[in-house]
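User: quick one, fold this
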Amino acid sequence: MRLSQYFLPTLKETPAEAQIVSHRLMLRAGMIRQSSAGIYSWLPLGFRVLKRIEQIVREEEDAAGCQEVLMPTIQPAELWRASGRYDDYGAEMLRIKDRHDRDMLYGPTNEEQITEIFKAYIRSYKHLPKLLYHIQWKFRDEVRPRFGVMRGREFLMKDAYSFDLDYAGAERSYRKFFVAYLRTFARMGLKAIPMQADSGPIGGDMSHEFQILAETGESKVFCDKAFLNFDPLQSDIDYDGNLKPLVDRWTGLYAAADEKHDPAKCPVKGDQLLEARGIEVGHIFYFGTKYSAPLGANVDGPDGKSTTVHMGSYGIGVSRLTGAIIEASHDDAGIIWPESVAPFRVGLINLKTGDAKTDALCADVYAKLRQKKVEVLYDDRDERAGAKFADMDLIGLPWQVIVGPRGAAVEKVEVKNRRTGERAEMSVDQALTKVAG
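Assistant:
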C-alpha cells in the first residue's frame, strides 16, 4: 500500500482528552476516532491491528476444540428475565423497545443467548462437551468511559462458553481455555500472568484473570519471578490429553493483584517477588448451573435421568488488547508493534520522492516485497525526511527499509529494526532476506 493513497490521519499534537499512553498513540497514529463518549470508529490502520488480534484469538480457540458461532448484538429481554438478570444488571445495560413495543437490549454479554441455543438442540450427554465461542461487539453503558479503547462503552469481545455433564467435565474444559489463553497472549508478544479471581457465590478456585505486565498498567500485581521463564509456546499442546500438570505448574506459583496481596502471608521472599503493573486482558470463570438451571438446559445422562449441564464462560477483550499491547510495547517516539499483530510488517521510506534513481530503487524493493507476500506500507509522499521518519516511528511497524539518493547510487538500502533501533546498510537482496522473516 502506498502511503500517498492510504487513509492515515496522523496527528503531531496529543489530543487533550487522552490520559494514557495507548489512547494518545492510537489517536496520534490515526488508528481510531471518537464518535461519542466511549465509542470509536476504527480507521484503516487500527482496523488491521484489530483483525490481526482477532485472528490469533480465533486460531487458538479453534485449536482447543472450540467452534465459532455468531450471535446477535440485540437480544430479547425475556431471556434475561428468565435468568433473573434483566432487572439486576443495572444501568450499564442499554434497554430498548422495538416498533412492536417489545423489550430488547443491546447485549453486554451472551450467557443467556448461548444457553438458549444449546437448550434448543442438545438433548443427550453423548453430545457433550460443547465449547462454543463468538467474536462480537458488546455494549455496556459505563458511567465514566475513559482511557480510549481500554474502557469504552462499545467494545469487541471474544466470549466462549463450555457445556459439560458434570463438574469433572467442566474442569477439563476449563483447563483447555486456561492453556489456550496462555498461548493466545504469548503469540501477541505479551507476558500474561494468571491470577486467581473471585468466584462469587459458587466458590472454588476455577476463576482466573489474566494480567499482562506493562509499566503503565492500571493495577499493581505481585508474582513469582519464575513466571518470566515460562514459555507457553515451547511445545505443542494435546488438548485431548491430560492438561492438569501444565495448569498446576502455572497455578502453583504465587500471583496476586494488589487487593489480594498480603505481604505477611506471601510465600515468595526477597528478590524472587516481582512487583509490577498489570492490565487485565482475559477472564475465565466456571459458574456451574447458574444459567442452565433457570433456562432449563438439561440433557439425558448415562442413567437416562435428566441432568442440568455445567457451564463456564471465557472472555478476552479483543479491542482492549489493542490498547494493552501498546501500553506494554512503546517508547517516546511511538508504538512498537510485535510482528504478529503489526498492521504492516515493513515501512518503506523514500527519502527523496522525485529523484529518478531513488524512485526506481523504491519501486523495485516495493515490488519484490509484494511478490514475497510481505505486507508493506510505502511512504512515497513528497514530505521532509524528518516527517517520514517521525510518522513511521509513530505507527511502529517492525521493520523500516530506507532508500535515499546516496544509497540508490550504489543500490544500497538501510534497514532499521523498530524495536531495537539497530540500523544497517545492505544490498536489496540482503534487506529482503532480513525483513521477510
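User: anything notable?
Assistant: The chain has a mean pLDDT of 95.
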